[in-house]
Specification:
This protein has 602 residues and is mainly α. The protein has 24 helices and seven strands. The relative contact order is 0.11.
Length: 602
Amino acid sequence: MRHPYDGPVTSDTATQAERDEDLLLPEPQPSAWQRRLRRFGYTERPHVDVRDRLVVPFPEPGTRVWSSLGLGPAAASKVARLTGWGGPLLVALLAGLIRFWHLGTPRAVIFDETYYAKDAWALLQYGYEGTWTDGKVSNPQILADPQIIPLSPDAGYVVHPPVGKWVIAVGEQLFGLNPFGWRFMVALLGTLSVLMVCRIGRRLFRSTALGCLAGLLLSVDGLHYVMSRTALLDLVIMFFALAAFGCLVVDRDWSRARLAAALPVGEDGLAAPDRRVGDRGGMGWRPWRLAAGLFLGLACASKWNGLYFLAAFGLMTILWDAGSRRVAGARRPYVAVLRKDTGWAFLSVVVVAICTYLVSWTGWFATKGGYGRDWAAHRKGLSPDHIKLPAIGRIDLPQFDMTWMPDALRSLWHYEFQVYQFNIGLSTPHMYQSNPWSWMVLGRPVSYFYESPKKGADGCTAAQGCAREILAIGTPLLWWSACFALLYLLYRWGFRRDWRAGAILCAAFAGWLPWMMYQDRTIFLFYAVAFVPYLCLAVAMMVGAILGPPGSDERRRMWGAVGAGTLVLLIVWNFIYFFPIYTGMPISMDAWRARMWFDSWI
């Protein structure tokens, strides 16, 4: 098979490197640290063509399955190539069917839909969030026939940026202010996120099967499923952060391919590391990283914890660049990255994210009725005189004359300061709050909706009455498997230097660990939906290890397939078993109690 980078090398640096033998690096020798790690299972990478180390080629798709179905060699090869998109699309279709099934049921305003569905409608009307009457009055009016919409143009104080509510508003614009309308776009993003996980997993693992497995696991996760059918903001931030992660994974291949193409090729046809390419070579135009900055800006503009994804992913892409230059032959990769890449990375990710965030407030800027819109009209400063930070306390801030800055921007800064102080100081006790340490074991889920219909009402057929509940809880066997998968990835990253494990861990911990800083804040399990896709990728990577490494004998593969298949089937069965309490289906009280495996779930 022809190598993707075979052909003439036109880079001036590569041509010069061929003439300067002193620039060709010798085969790398294991460091003292690597020699120590061998005692714990560390193995060095095999010495292969440097271009293959920079961009691992996708293996040719197998045709044995399709040939066994009677297809000829040419047809089987064509079908096998189509599975790269066909498999993920089929998994996404399955996810979409179960997410849009009876999407408008229950016909109720459940949990925090009472805030976001209404704010989304207000954005459509005024460009900013207005004021509604109390939910006990307004919710029945919204659901009544004829409908009454008790919305006032008076500014309402809201504590989250507008993008997530604008997303919900698209569905309301299409289908009206009703449960199906305000849940439509969230369900669509939930379905698309399954497709993205399939494709991201395929690129990470260079395996369509493992990519589709990761997407399948996401499609049958209970928390992701419930959040895909509820008009809350957390799935929106999950979607944009996942899109940014996928863009950065593609950008990694894109940029490393540029370096690989510039490397000198020896008489044996293999590329060798080159210091000039590693230290000075450019990685060219990087549109995928610009797209990542855009999506990270949208994540931040949906909810404040998007900032942690911005920080984690920004650092991750810089470290990837350093690794790329090291493999390409850089003598001092971090110096090379600082000189060649850091500035552009900052512009592509951070500056683009900030600009996107500001643009998201266009409705607030373009009108005068938004909360705090004219705060700076008669003030010279930029912010209050102090700020309170978790684990630090009060910090006094210097005051400056900031009248050179537009009043609208100063007003927005003050508004955002108030919102930040509210978010870190929210400590009102709630019966469903939980500590983030308990999330991975599903210690305390959140009940979004509960009714106890009698026999003959709402489809109840049990003599003792029924229970209808929507419980925001992950599929237990999937989450408990993910606990072991994260430990496995820590091993892969620490002892095998597997960048895929590091990337998944970085994204998962960016969504989880920051909540540890807010132990006194009122926190809920459903916030964890932001990192659920990475748990599914982690489990898929662990399943790949269970199946066995390349070159395993038939017996090892057989037992690996039995173990992996059993785990996946149990996870799917677990989702089906809990399906009634994900959707609010009427079930007997005995069946409901059977699904409350722990007292903390009630």
